[in-house]
Write a structure and sequence with these properties.
This protein is of the alpha/beta class and 324 residues long. The chain is built from twelve helices and eleven strands. The strands form two sheets. The protein has a six-stranded mixed β-sheet with strand order 6-7-8-9-11-10, with helices on both faces. A hairpin with a 3-residue loop joins β10 and β11. α2 packs parallel to α4, α5 runs antiparallel to α6 and α5 crosses α7.
């Protein structure tokens, strides 16, 4: 799978690696895991990292991330964990400075945008692809490389609780733990530590919750003014679906939040019986069967109309999936 990827890496001198905007744990883990691996074999490489949540600030040397490309031209750009070129954390002009682009991703295919594309949507995290790439390149894992890749695996699998987790994922995690990483501290920092502001956002999301289809669908909306007033950043504003979907009998949880740029981000989680990727794709988004999202388009519509379209389409899929 990685033959062409490795060939391009080997012949490149100057390399940049980027993930998506508002990076989550998998994006950061993939970018920095590969960054430190390529740095270890002597490559001139830098990670591009946009604004990220302070929850990740404990990770080693995360300050190595840069915001833009320094050169007028460079050899290779490696894009990870983003099926959409538009969502990459790199400026268009910096993207175009690359002689070659590689795309490494685990989402259902959008239009691949790399000269070389390594995509496996059966895997739960881009970090597992990076783990496999590092292994195939025979680069020895050290604590820094292993910590980042483990963090990516852990976050995108819900601490290995999601059904998307594969036996290969667990084997990779075990291999990374054997390097000697402090995996319990990573889990504690990511899962068991939150800002007080996020606690108040959780309260607001739950108080705004609406219930549809006899409790099978739980929906909440929080506007940007509320999020901003609470002092919650983009990454900390995520994750409200996880609280909604835990309620018994819930099949689909939906969280809509306002963003600083005036758009509305829709995040959906399914407990398994409803393929929400199909729903997200129909609205111009994408993702996985159990975790997907899109940007709600209000250009020629209203929030209430778009909300009803979404609820109706979820209802159709509920009927389809429960009819048998």
């Amino acid at each position: 799978m990685f033959k062409e990827v490795i060939r391009e890496i080997e012949k490149a001198n100057k390399i940049y690696i980027t993930g998506h905007i508002n990076p989550d744990g998998d994006s950061i883990g993939s970018v920095f895991g590969l960054y430190f691996a390529l740095k270890k074999i002597g490559k001139d490489v830098l990670p591009i990292l946009s604004n990220y949540s302070s929850v990740f600030s404990f990770m080693p040397n995360i300050s190595d991330g840069v915001e833009s490309v320094k050169e007028d031209e460079y050899d290779l750009l490696i894009c990870v964990d983003s099926s959409s070129k538009a969502r990459l954390a790199i400026k268009e002009e910096d993207f175009n400075k690359a002689k070659t682009v590689i795309m490494i991703d685990h989402h259902q295919k959008d239009m691949p945008y790399g000269k070389v594309n390594a995509i496996d949507s059966s895997l739960p995290a881009a970090s597992e692809l990076i783990y496999n790439l590092v292994k195939e390149m025979n680069i020895e894992f050290d604590e820094t490389i292993a910590s980042y890749i483990y963090m990516g695996l852990m976050t995108d699998t819900g601490s290995f609780n999601y059904a998307s987790t594969k036996p290969s994922t667990m084997r990779a995690a075990a291999d990374l733990i054997s390097v000697g990483i402090d995996f319990s501290e990573i889990c504690k920092k990511i899962n068991d530590t939150i800002k007080e502001s996020k606690l108040f956002l959780i309260e607001k999301a739950i108080s705004n919750m609406e219930v549809f289809y006899d409790g099978k669908v739980r929906y909440t909306f929080v506007d940007y003014d509320t999020i901003s007033a609470l002092g919650v950043d983009e990454e900390d504003a995520e994750g409200m679906t996880n609280y909604l979907r835990k309620v018994e009998n819930t099949e689909v949880a939906v969280y809509v939040r306002g963003k600083q740029n005036g758009t509305l981000k829709v995040s959906m989680r399914s407990n398994g019986k409803v393929d929400i990727a199909k729903i997200a794709i129909s609205f111009g988004g994408g993702g996985h069967v159990r975790a997907s999202g899109y940007t709600m388009n209000l250009e020629n519509s209203t929030y209430e109309k778009e909300k009803q379209k979404l609820i109706d389409l979820i209802g159709v899929n509920l009927n389809d999936d429960f009819s048998g």
